[in-house]
């Protein structure tokens, strides 16, 4: 409670009217800690809100209006105004990138239905040496990918001081062994290449992860600065279409699912890693 006087409190019904949020939404936001009532009657459980909470309620409503997930809203509300503003800008940049990629998919679908060949992203081939890596396979839906990847790559391995191989061969990556969406759950494999001379030592510290060796191979990839090559479901789908269309045109056989590589670019200045999409070739 914030100690507001009774005169500055209103019932949930009145607060709903003033904030234009339904009582159902207010109860949900209370449960999630987004907008907690100023006072709850101990006997009846009835919620009372401070009039001063209207500003926060309107912020929550606007964030929901632009599609910000509830969990992310909770994180934004915990920040100071400048930090929250930066997070909102970052969220909308991602939304615009996703919309741009969806536009590519719409164009591809229309061309396909009309029997036309789509112009896809430029695909390049590179050689990847044999390497050892820590990996873990999980079933995951689209909304689980980022939290699971962040937990493994950042919180456990990067912050745990696990070394990486230099160059592109050392980039952590995710392999989509099956369709990943709100309905399909992969499976998905997260991989972290490690130096050969320390592989066994490093693996001993992570008994829940698998240490495996990947043979040398070529891979086709879409550069991180290509349109639609950033993260996001539509961007990933556009990359899948481009890579497999290229493989068919070049009579090259993909080996396994599409990979999303995290490229740690010092020039990004804390904005997070770039993403490249690739597929190993037989």
Molecular structure report:
- With 282 residues, the protein is an alpha+beta fold.
- The protein folds into 2 domains: 6-78, Multidrug-efflux Transporter Regulator, Chain: A, Domain 2, CATH 1.10.1660.10; 124-281, Multidrug-efflux Transporter 1 Regulator Bmrr, Chain A (Alpha-Beta Barrel), CATH 3.20.80.
- Helices cover 38% and strands 21% of the residues.
- The protein has 8 helices and 11 strands.
- The strands form 2 sheets. It has an 8-stranded antiparallel sheet. A 3-stranded antiparallel sheet has the order 1-3-2.
- A hairpin with a 6-residue loop joins strand 2 and strand 3.
- Helix 5 runs parallel beside helix 8.
- The longest helix has 33 residues, at 81-113.
- The model is unreliable at 1-6 and 225-231 (pLDDT under 50).
Q: What is Rg?
A: 24 Å
Count every helix, treating DSSP H or I runs of 4 or more residues as helices: 8
Query: Could you give me the name of the CATH homologous superfamily of the largest domain?
Result: Regulatory factor, effector binding domain
Query: How many E-type strands?
Result: 11
CATH class of the largest domain: Alpha Beta
Give the overall shape: globular
- Ends: how far apart? 63 Å
Number of domains: 2
Give me some keywords for this one.
Multidrug-efflux Transporter Regulator, Chain: A, Domain 2, alpha+beta, 282 residues, disordered N terminus, globular, 3-stranded antiparallel sheet, Multidrug-efflux Transporter 1 Regulator Bmrr, Chain A, 2 domains, 21% strand, 8 helices
